[in-house]
Structure formats: C-alpha cells, structure tokens
Amino acid sequence: MSDMETAIELYEGGSGASKPKVRKGSDPEEQQRKMMVRSLTSVPGLGPVTAKALVDAGCTSIGDLKRPKFFDMLSLRQQRSARYYEHLERPVERSQAELLAKFISENISCKFDVELVGSYRRGAQSFLGVDIMLTHPSYVHVPTPPSKNGSATHGINKTPFRARKLREVQDSPLSSDVVFPLESRGFIAETLSAGPNKWQGIIQLPGRTIDGTWEDRSQRIERIREQRGLYTRLDLNLAPIKSKGAALLALTGDKEFNIDILAKAARLGLLLNEFGLWRWISDPSLPTDAEQGYWTFVEGDSEDAVLRELGMNYVEPTKRNFAYLANSDSDASTVKKSVRHRKKAV
C-alpha cells in the first residue's frame, strides 16, 4: 500500500489506524496466535482473514508458507509475494534504485520520462521497494472524479491509478510500451497487480558486466527461472502530462503529509487526487434527477501550483513528512488529530 493510499484510509477513518495492543493478562496462547497472524500479514497482499485461516491450519511462521499445505491456501498474488518474501524485506540502496531507473529508461521508448518517487525522492538512503513515475508526451487523458452529489471527498481512489476495467489495462501504454518490453528483457519476475496507470510487481535488480554493458538477457531470464539474484518490489505509475504535479505529490509525501494536504483541499471544498485538484460546480440547468453538477479541473501539472491553491508554499520533497508538519507554522491539526486518535486506540 502506498503512502497516499494509507493517508486516504486514515483521513476517511479507514483501516490504517494502529492495531490495539493485546491486554495484559490475556491468554498466552491467544496472544501467540495474534502475533503469528500479525507476522503473516507482513507478506504483501496477505490479509488478516487468510492469515487467521493459515494459523488455524497450523502455519506458525512466514517460512511455513512455502510448505505445500499452506502454499495452496494462498491466492496467486500471495504465492508470488511469499516466494520472494526474503527479497522484499531486504532494503534497496539509492544507488540500486538509480541503476534500476536507468535500466528502465534504456529499455523502453526514450519519449518516456522516468522519475524515482516515494522514499527515494524524500531523501531516504535505503527503502523497501522502489516507486517510479512515468510520463509520456502523448499520454494526456485526465479522468474526472466520479460525480456523486457534489461531495468534495467522494471518489478519491484508495489506490492511486487503480484499474477500473480490463479493457483499460489491455489498451494502456503502460502495459504495451513499458511492462511488455521490460518482461522481454528479463527484468520482471512476477506481476502482483496491473492497471492502466499502475503496475506492481517483483523485479530482478539489474547489473552491469565488467565492460559496463547490461547483463545478457538470457542470463537474466535463466536466473529468474531458478530464482537466483536480487529482487525487489517495483511500482510503476503512469501519469498524464497535465497531472504530473498532482501525481508527484501523491507519490512522494509520506502518509501524514498526504493526510494534511487532502484535508486542506477538503476544507476548501476541493478534491485532491493523483490526477489533480478539482472543484465541484453546481449546475442548476441540469435535470433534477441528474447529479446536480460537475467537476472542473483546477490545477495539476505543477506541484508548486497545486500547493499554492491549497494556501501552502512549496515544500521540498525531503520535507514532505510528519516531522516537517509538526515543526512548521502551517496548520498540521489534521495530522496531529490523526496521530492522537491512533495513540488513543493503542
């Protein structure tokens, strides 16, 4: 789950809050069971329902997931995550992320702009998984939010760039012009999810030979087949050119920062999502049984412009976190309230 997804869940009162601690004096066996369930849910895509079923069936650790009895209880995505779990828990260094981004740039059309986002853009020295944003001069369509009663918060995707229809995925340049050529180069090991604007999967970290060229394609494919080498989680996000600024905001800030800017937008009667900042326009000329208005695009191509519309100065990517909000003069009450709420639940 990305930081924007988590932020939206927390802002909307979703499931992002911390889980309550086990009370002192509770049954030791039940406490142990809860610890095992919590451990299993650290596997990407493995939720509490499946984790509880696994524990009830006798699974006691993540290592047990590879045993046929438990492996068969997993969905295809969960099986893929479990197979590479040790790799997914290994931090990626900045230099590795940069090499990965360069490999992508050199193996897809040069018209794509490839930019590292997420923890990398916030300045972290190492991180679990790599997030990349792609833009292309011919990819310009900006989908409008769902029109539901003019609500300024309705329709915000819990998953930025989430797929809506299978046809959208098949027709997307992300699939045909990015994922497909990278698969053919022995870069992609597994696909976890795919949409027209977002692909998530497990990739083999690229390497160079002594003479500076990329490793041979056949060697990479063979290593994937034998599950040798180093792997990590990769998110590819395709943003329309006009939405570049909004997408960078969504894909860079940590969850507290994103909670704050979502709340600022809502207080102004606006909607902020990965495609831009929107204002609801009531239209009295529409029939009474219509949705009573429409969304109009306010801003999206520039981070600075979006933040300015929210009454904020530009915030450097390395400062888009709770520490900055807590120590700045800006109104971080939404974030502080969220944190207090989570502490109270502990």
Automatic annotation (TrEMBL):
Specify the DNA-directed DNA polymerase X domain's residue ranges: 1-321
The UniProt entry's GO CC annotations, sorted and at most eight, read: nucleus
Q: Spell out the Pfam families in the cross-references.
A: DNA_pol_B_palm, DNA_pol_B_thumb, DNA_pol_lambd_f
**Gene Ontology biological process terms, A to Z:** double-strand break repair via nonhomologous end joining
GO terms, molecular function: DNA binding; DNA-directed DNA polymerase activity; metal ion binding
Q: Which reaction does it catalyse?
A: DNA(n) + a 2'-deoxyribonucleoside 5'-triphosphate = DNA(n+1) + diphosphate
- What highest taxon heads this organism's lineage? Eukaryota
Known EC number(s)? 2.7.7.7
UniProt KW DNA damage keyword: yes
Tell me the segments the record calls region Disordered.
Answer: 10-31
What's the family?
Belongs to the DNA polymerase type-X family.
Q: What does this protein do?
A: DNA polymerase that functions in several pathways of DNA repair. Involved in base excision repair (BER) responsible for repair of lesions that give rise to abasic (AP) sites in DNA. Also contributes to DNA double-strand break repair by non-homologous end joining and homologous recombination. Has both template-dependent and template-independent (terminal transferase) DNA polymerase activities. Has also a 5'-deoxyribose-5-phosphate lyase (dRP lyase) activity.
Q: What is this protein called?
A: DNA polymerase
> From what organism does this protein derive?
Suillus luteus UH-Slu-Lm8-n1
